[in-house]
Specification:
4 helices
């Protein structure tokens, strides 16, 4: 059973970011399916770790693209990323120390809701602005350092 289905309405119009979103959805689906199938704890930890690692990569890519364009919403966008990153890392730590067999359904519903809302609201808005900037004749990207949430 698929927990999240990719729909074209989730596309933000930047291939790299859309591909990242598809991969994030695939990780969430894999984790959900692993929970449903009663997979071993070690398998679920690996999937969760892969999700955390790829989320860092993806968030860094988004933040870099927005910051290079000089969008004023970059700080707020990064703050949303940091909030999710902190929540996921806390959930991961709780899962590893509580001795429960699998991450909770509550955590999965939270991940799904946050990811879909973030794509449909923040990403769509900010990347629409980025697209408008890129099509203007005066667009010149700024060079910045990568920043993402820390463990």
């Amino acid at each position: 059973m698929v927990f999240i289905t990719w729909k074209e309405e989730l596309s933000i119009g930047f291939v790299a970011i859309d591909n990242d979103h598809k991969k994030l959805i695939a990780f969430v689906n894999e984790l959900y399916q692993g929970i449903q199938d009663g997979r071993e704890r070690e398998v679920l930890v690996r999937i969760l770790d892969d999700l955390v690692d790829f989320t860092r990569i993806h968030f860094g890519r988004e933040e870099r693209m927005l910051a290079e364009a000089g969008l004023s919403s970059t700080v707020a966008h990064k703050r949303e990323h940091d909030e999710l990153g902190s929540a996921v890392l806390k959930a991961r730590a709780d899962y590893l120390t509580d001795g429960v067999v699998a991450p909770s359904l509550e955590m999965m519903v939270f991940l799904k809701g946050w990811l879909l809302a973030h794509i449909m609201e923040s990403d769509k808005n900010d990347f629409w602005c980025l697209k408008q900037l890129k099509t203007s004749r005066s667009y010149k990207p700024m060079m910045i350092q990568n920043a993402s949430f820390q463990e």
